[in-house]
Design goal:
CATH superfamily of the largest domain in chain B: Histidine kinase-like ATPase, C-terminal domain
Largest sheet of chain A: 5 strands, parallel
Distance between the termini of chain A: 10 Å
CATH topology of the largest domain in chain B: Heat Shock Protein 90
Shape of chain A: globular
CATH class of chain A: Alpha Beta
Radius of gyration of chain B: 31 Å
Low-confidence stretches of chain A: none
Strand order of the largest sheet of chain A: 2-1-3-4-5
Structural class of chain B: alpha/beta
Number of domains of chain B: 2
CATH architecture of the largest domain in chain B: 2-Layer Sandwich
Mean pLDDT of chain A: 89
Oligomer: heterodimer
CATH class of the largest domain in chain B: Alpha Beta
CATH superfamily of chain A: Response regulator
Number of strands of chain B: 13
Helix content of chain A: 40-55%
Number of helices of chain A: 5
Mean pLDDT of chain B: 86
Strand order of the largest sheet of chain B: 8-7-10-11-13-12
């Protein structure tokens, strides 16, 4: 069965490279959003296996998305991407039960892919 | 004794003047003399910014000491005036009191009495000068620290802007690598792989610099934390890289410093304010580079940084081979404005470093010479 991924980042080039890389694996069905406000509305109604979101975005932050998803008691896994390993934000998202942390620049795309598959139990 | 005090001494008798002058010259920053009141007044007008105290005889040709004192007090009502007087000059005393002279010294003069009278009179001026110096130092430190904070903010902004393109350059490049691996072997494939290794090296270097700047930007909370001193040294060296690379070889625990160095190769943990401590490392590294650059050949210049742990203390030792610090400078090394550099605007660097180490970390920083080089040793106490 395909795994549905939502990727949210206000930087189009980041969305592009993640989509092109992960789509090499047939198991993923990918949706990308550069507008986090639209993404968060979509995530309220549709079901995703995993949401991959940047933390620092205008208007809606990755933490808001995490909070929304986790409070819905959904089974959706959440991975947050961040350029800063900002301690305060790390602590806050740990409280909210983040499933995976990805630092930018990505150390290794294959490694990220494996971690995602792992979380999804594939 | 009074090495920041300038005195004007007015006396018409050449013999007395030259005796007093020969004894006093080396005690003061400047010992100006005049042979009558008019000359004294002229010299005062020319040097009124620097003269701190006046010692004058009373009975002199052209303009007597009292009239000169009147004229000088009109220019500067606060300047202390000491009058040297003989018993037969009592008539002038009344006038002298009216002007409010600071003290009298009886003639024939006992030099000891004169010096101790000057000392008493000058005390409030010395205090005032000290206070002014401290205020200036304080201001200078605040400017320096504001500059540091502003640079940090700028660096954080730029870092964030570079980080995004770096992320997708690196990710796309990685993907490209997988595609090229899949190609069948050929001369072209080998050429591409060679070029990719170079690009990959460049990306790693940019990533390392951006990473250090990110680190620097993020811990500004000022709170103490357990940090690896070894990695803070590597971070500081990366931040000083632009200066280091043209100046000297830097060795960290024996290993030649380069941008790809593993920051966690060693672990020496101490409870510190990381950003402040890195500021200290950068100051010392920059100072060493400024000295090393005076050595003619690049290959003859080296800075060794060694970190070790002993008795629950982390000891960091910076040793260069730039010829060492002269006794004269060594004496005031950690005082503001007394350092070796007038030009770079960092005359307060080491005084800030000492403040950070002594006051904020209750640790010690010392400097000494060894084998034709300067050594800075910092002992971070862990209790």
């Amino acid at each position: 069965m395909k795994k549905k991924i939502m990727i949210i980042d206000d930087e189009l080039e980041i969305l592009d490279v993640l989509e092109r890389f992960l789509s090499r694996n047939d198991i993923f069905q990918i949706e990308t959003y550069s507008n986090p406000a639209i993404a968060i509305e979509k995530a309220k109604t549709d079901n995703y296996d995993i949401v991959l979101s940047d933390i620092m975005m205008p208007q809606v932050s990755g933490l808001d998305i995490l909070e929304t998803l986790k409070s819905r008691d959904s089974l959706t896994k959440v991975a947050l991407m961040t350029a800063y390993s900002n301690k305060h934000k790390v602590e806050r998202s740990n409280e909210l039960n983040v499933d995976l942390y990805i630092e930018k620049p990505f150390q290794n795309l294959r490694d990220i892919e494996n971690k995602i598959l792992n979380i999804l139990g594939v | 004794m009074f090495d920041n005090i300038t005195i004007l001494y007015v006396e018409d008798e050449d013999q007395i003047r030259s005796v007093v002058q020969s004894v006093s010259t080396r005690l003061f920053k400047q010992f100006l003399t005049a042979s009558n009141g008019q000359e004294g007044l002229d010299i005062f007008r020319e040097n009124q910014e620097t003269i701190d105290l006046i010692v004058t005889d009373i009975n002199m040709p052209q303009l007597n000491g009292i009239d000169m004192a009147y004229a000088i007090r009109e220019i500067n009502p606060d300047i202390p005036i000491i009058i040297t007087t003989a018993h037969n000059e009592k008539d002038f005393l009344h006038e002298a009191i009216k002007i409010g002279v600071s003290a009298f010294v009886l003639k024939p003069m006992d030099m000891k009495v004169l010096i101790s009278t000057i000392q008493k009179t000058i005390q409030p001026i010395l205090l005032k000068k000290q206070l002014e110096l401290e205020q200036q130092q304080h201001l200078e430190e605040r400017v320096e620290s504001a500059k540091f904070a502003a640079t940090g903010k700028l660096a954080a902004g730029i870092t964030h802007e570079i980080n995004t393109p770096l992320t997708y350059i690196k990710a796309n490049f990685e993907m490209m690598g997988y595609d090229i691996e899949d190609l069948s072997d050929s001369k072209e494939k080998n050429n591409i792989i060679k070029s990719m290794e170079k690009i990959s090296d460049g990306i790693r270097r940019i990533e390392n610099i951006v990473g250090s700047m990110k680190e620097m930007a993020q811990y500004s909370s000022g709170k103490k934390e357990d940090a690896n001193i070894y990695s803070s040294i590597v971070t500081a060296a990366i931040l000083a890289y632009s200066k280091i690379k043209h100046t000297a070889n830097v060795y960290i625990n024996g290993e030649l410093f380069n941008l790809d160095m593993d920051k966690n190769r060693y672990s020496y943990i101490s409870n510190v304010q990381l950003q402040r401590i890195e500021q200290v490392w950068i100051i010392i590294i920059n100072n060493a580079m400024d000295e090393l650059v005076k050595i003619e050949k690049f290959t003859n210049r080296a800075l060794h940084i060694d970190i070790k742990e002993e008795n629950n203390e982390v000891i960091v030792r910076f040793k260069d081979n730039a010829g060492g610090i002269s006794d004269e400078i060594m004496e005031h090394l950690f005082d503001p404005f007394k350092g070796t550099k007038e030009s770079s605007g960092m005359g307060v660097g080491l005084s800030i470093a000492r403040k950070i180490i002594d006051d904020q970390h209750n640790s010690t920083i010392t400097a000494y010479n060894e084998d034709g080089g300067a050594v800075f040793e910092i002992i971070l106490k862990n209790s």
